[in-house]
């Protein structure tokens, strides 16, 4: 409760189309501009999905390496690559994301219905991701789409040990159609279950779509951190499209300040997360 707030920006995702959401950053230049401006506002971590020349989601290894290098050169942000990719990405390509040597990578803790699709995360695949991250010194952020994913994480850590860096950090991704709802009640249930994880485990939360604000407020009120960005919501308020990721980060910073838990710098975030 006493620490500052870790703010992660997830600027792009794999689900929205550039044609429908023109403000979505999809080129490397757009991503870098977004990253620099979000860092200046108070973000400390960037959760990255990249796009190809047609603005379609890709896990192209060369592009991922170039993206990590460019973000490191231009910002001090902690670079977290998505290993979730798009629901259509094969496991081998998702594992190969780690070859780009990011500071952090996401690791989703179970399969979940994802709108009309299925986001598949088999147990053996999760074990592979976790152990490869241990070997390479990549710090995981465990993505929790449902309460049972926290039980799966407890099992994973019990069998295979702590992640690289020794600190456990989870992110509740709430309000996905098919996953847990984006409500304060669901967040409190997850927060309770975090107590069964290693001491010192920290959590962030993000609410998809209209659950963004209740999840943000509930997370701050229960000692959690924040993830915001156009991966998770493209509507700022009823009938008002998001203008930019910066608009969402600025709102999160204001909420964190109101909670008297101001944003952590990237250096503070590195200390917290063991990066
Ligand atoms: N795009 C979703 C299918 C992650 O980045 O690790 C998965 C996702 C989670 O966004
Ligand atoms: Zn993602």
Structural overview:
- The protein has 275 residues and is an alpha/beta fold.
- Helix content is 38%, strand content 19%.
- It has an eight-stranded parallel β-barrel, surrounded by eight helices.
- Strand 3 and strand 4 form a beta hairpin.
- The protein is globular.
- The two termini are 21 Å apart.
- The model has no long low-confidence stretch (mean pLDDT 98).
- The structure holds (5S)-5-amino-3-OXO-hexanoic acid and zinc ion.
- (5S)-5-amino-3-OXO-hexanoic acid binds at residues 13-14, 82-84, 86-87, 106, 108, 114, 119, 143.
Compact summary:
The protein is an alpha/beta fold and 275 residues long. The chain is built from nine helices and 14 strands. The site of zinc ion has 7 residues, from loops.
Helix/strand layout:
Layout lengths: L6 E3 L18 H14 L3 E4 L1 E2 L5 E2 L2 H14 L3 E4 L9 H6 L7 E5 L3 E3 L2 E3 L3 H14 L2 E6 L2 H14 L8 E6 L9 H11 L7 E6 L4 H10 L3 E4 L6 E3 L2 E2 L3 H14 L7 H8 L2
Parallel strand pairs: 1-2, 1-12, 2-5, 5-6, 6-9, 9-10, 10-11, 11-12
Antiparallel strand pairs: 3-4, 7-8, 13-14
Strand content: 15-25%
Element pattern in H and E: EHEEEHEHEEEHEHEHEHEEEHH
Q: Output mean pLDDT.
A: 98
Which small molecules are bound?
(5S)-5-amino-3-OXO-hexanoic acid, zinc ion
Strand order of the largest sheet: 1-2-5-6-9-10-11-12
From the alpha-carbon coordinates, what is the Rg to the nearest angstrom?
A: 17 Å
How many DSSP helices? Answer: 9
What's the story with the biggest beta sheet?
8 strands, parallel, barrel
Sequence stretches where pLDDT stays below 50 over 5 or more residues: none
Report, as a whole number of angstroms, the end-to-end distance.
21 Å
